[in-house]
Every structure is written in structure tokens, then in C-alpha cells.
TrEMBL record:
This enzyme's EC code(s): 1.1.1.1
Keywords, in A-Z order: Metal-binding, NAD, Oxidoreductase, Zinc
Database matches in PANTHER family: ALCOHOL DEHYDROGENASE 1-RELATED
Signal peptide: none
GO molecular function: alcohol dehydrogenase (NAD+) activity; zinc ion binding
Protein family according to the UniProt entry: Belongs to the zinc-containing alcohol dehydrogenase family.
Protein name, UniProt field: alcohol dehydrogenase
PROSITE patterns: ADH_ZINC
């Protein structure tokens, strides 16, 4: 296959300084290094992590200037001389983990997201809010050419992350999982993965629009925290035996839900922390946590095997990310809605607009 024509300049959303504003401008198209590929990004999802990158409110410094984004789906247009496993013309995804050392203890045990030298798309290296992006060939997600690039882009972070969290929870078919932040991009996918895995879900979020969406996605109960007088009791009451869910998947972007989860999860239940509200702390009552044998654990992004499995659910039609497509130039408006909590599902950016 002959190499496609690659322009020297491209449109991108650039963060010049922490806190913004974003600058939509033309920047040079980079050339891939020996072990890298250059991807013509067609669509890219917008994640709450991208807002943290803009605001710089995580205890991890960002690259500056920075092109954010880590849910990019597109076509390989060039590759480095050492790359043999990915070809020009392949459809691939750019994930949060852009590259790792592949040789440390974590990498060799399939825990590459824990690699101390991990490169993070849209945070420590430029990401997918541009028309052409660089990624390590070993870490791009392989996409079937029959899979729509706009629809699959949210799965590249949101889908893989919640799928990993459900696996970490140990929840089994027939058991119940409460999903906090169920109406957001991650939550909408978490409900679908649970349904596909035979796990019942209680959705926790606020607003009638999100309630309707969660019911359509298969959750048998919805707890509106903005209307509830006692979230703990309401969640427990939503389970058949009143003991609470077997596991809780925390996708919230505020601290309070993290403090409540250990109170309503059932004895021997597991609380999975995925959301990363800035400056938040975990807190649970020691006595009750001990005598009820509660497990509280963090779940980061999935490894390469988790990625392949999560994408397989999508390819088989078991997962459908609710999304709306807007142009790359409209990213500031998406962030504004995100800050106000007005987004149900996911926004996907068309890099050609």
C-alpha cells in the first residue's frame, strides 16, 4: 500500500498554559519515531480527565504546551522503521496509555498501566485533539475496519476503564452492582458491560434525563442523589434482600459519593474507585468496614488484554456508547457543559470540523 499524502500542518486544540484558554490553531504534523506510528485521527471522545489536564488540578504535572485527548480513533498513515506489527492503513485507537517501557516488573506482569515510565496521551505527551497524533505501536488498540470510528472512540477510555473496574470488583452473573455517576460517559458504558456480563445494576445519578437513559440502558433501579433524603438507605432498599449491592463502581467527580459507598455496600462487598475528583480523600468507618469485611480498592485503566476484550464486546454489538458528534473547534463548549454537569453520555469530536 502506498503511503497517503501527509500535510505539514494540521488543526489542533492546544493548551499553552495551565487553566487555559484553549487555542484552536494550526501546528506542525510530527513524524513517528522508530517504534511509533502516526495516526490520522478521525474522531476523538472527550473525557473528564481532559478537563483535569486543562485545569492542572491533579498532582501530576502536564506537558506544556499540550494537545489533550486520549480517545482517538483513526487510520495509520506512517510508521517507524522498527514497526512491523502495525501497517499503514490499519484502523487503530489512541488510548490513555500511549507507551510504556515494556521491561519493568509491572509491564512483564501485564500491569503496564503501573509502569513508572508510562507515557499518558493528552497529559504527558500530546494526545488526540488534533488531526494527526503519535503513539507507540505496541500500545495502539487494534480496531476492525468494520467498526465505526466515531462510535468506538469513547470505548477507548471510558469503555476499557469501566470494564477493568467490573473485572476488579469480582461481581458475578446474577449479582448486583451500584454504579455511581451512571448517567455520564463511563457510567453509560458500565451499565451495558454489566448487562452483557449478566450483572444487575442500580444507577445512581441526578436528573430525569439521566434516569430515563439509565433505565433504557438496563438498570433496574435509579437513585437520584439530588432528591434522596438518605442515599445509603435508598440504595440498600433497591436490592432484593436490603443488604446492599455486591459491589459499587465509583465514577463520580465529587468527593461525597466516595464516603458513602462503604456504608451501603453489602457485607463482603467491594468498592471500586475509578473517578478522580481533584483533592478528594477516601474515608470509611473502620469498625463497620472490619466487621462487615468490606474491600475498598482502586482500579486504573485496563492493560492491552483488557483493551482487546472491551473492544470485542463493542464489535459484537453488546456495547453502544451514547454519543453526540461535534467539531474539534467546539471543544471549549463541551468543556463548559462538562463543568456544569450537563452531559449525558459522551461527546465525540470530528477532527475535520
Amino acid at each position: 500500500m502506498s503511503s497517503p499524502q501527509i500535510p505539514e500542518k494540521q488543526w489542533a486544540q492546544v493548551i499553552e498554559k495551565t487553566g487555559g484558554p484553549l487555542e484552536y490553531k494550526q501546528i506542525p504534523v510530527q513524524k513517528p519515531g522508530p517504534d511509533e506510528v502516526l495516526v490520522n485521527v478521525k474522531y476523538t471522545g472527550v473525557c473528564h480527565t481532559d478537563l483535569h489536564a486543562l485545569n492542572g488540578d491533579w498532582p501530576l504535572p502536564t506537558k506544556l504546551p499540550l494537545v489533550g485527548g486520549h480517545e482517538g480513533a483513526g487510520v495509520v498513515v506512517a510508521r517507524g522503521q522498527l514497526v512491523s506489527e502495525v501497517n499503514v492503513g490499519d484502523h487503530v485507537g489512541i488510548k490513555w496509555i500511549n507507551g510504556t517501557c515494556l521491561s519493568c516488573d509491572f509491564c512483564m506482569q501485564s500491569d503496564e498501566p503501573l509502569c513508572a515510565k508510562a507515557q499518558l496521551s493528552g497529559y504527558t505527551v500530546d494526545g488526540s485533539f488534533q488531526q494527526y497524533a503519535i503513539a507507540k505501536a505496541a500500545h495502539v488498540a487494534r480496531l476492525d475496519k468494520n467498526v465505526p470510528l466515531d462510535g468506538v472512540s469513547p470505548v477507548l477510555c471510558a469503555g476499557i476503564t469501566v470494564y477493568k473496574g467490573i473485572k476488579e470488583s469480582g461481581a458475578r452473573p446474577g449479582q448486583t452492582v451500584a454504579i455511581v455517576g451512571a448517567g455520564g460517559g463511563l457510567g453509560s458504558l458500565a451499565q451495558q458491560y454489566c448487562k452483557a456480563m449478566g450483572i444487575r445494576t442500580i444507577a445512581i445519578d441526578a436528573g430525569d434525563d439521566k434516569k430515563k437513559m439509565c433505565e433504557e440502558l438496563g438498570s433496574y433501579a435509579f437513585v437520584d442523589f439530588s432528591k434522596s433524603k438518605n442515599v445509603v438507605k435508598d440504595v440498600q432498599a433497591a436490592t432484593e434482600d436490603g443488604l446492599g449491592p455486591h459491589a459499587v463502581i465509583l465514577l463520580a467527580v465529587s468527593e461525597k459519593p466516595f464516603q458513602q459507598a462503604a456504608e451501603y455496600v453489602r457485607p463482603r462487598g467491594t468498592v471500586i474507585c475509578i473517578g478522580l475528583p481533584a483533592g478528594a480523600s477516601l474515608k470509611a468507618p473502620v469498625f463497620e468496614s472490619v466487621i462487615r469485611m468490606i474491600t475498598i480498592k482502586g482500579s486504573y485503566v485496563g492493560n492491552r488484554r483488557d483493551t482487546a476484550e472491551a473492544l470485542d464486546f463493542y464489535a459484537k454489538g453488546l456495547i453502544k456508547a451514547p454519543f453526540k458528534v461535534v467539531g474539534l473547534s467546539e471543544l471549549p463548549k463541551v468543556f463548559e457543559m462538562m463543568e456544569k454537569g450537563q452531559i449525558a453520555g459522551r461527546y465525540v469530536l470530528d477532527t475535520s470540523k
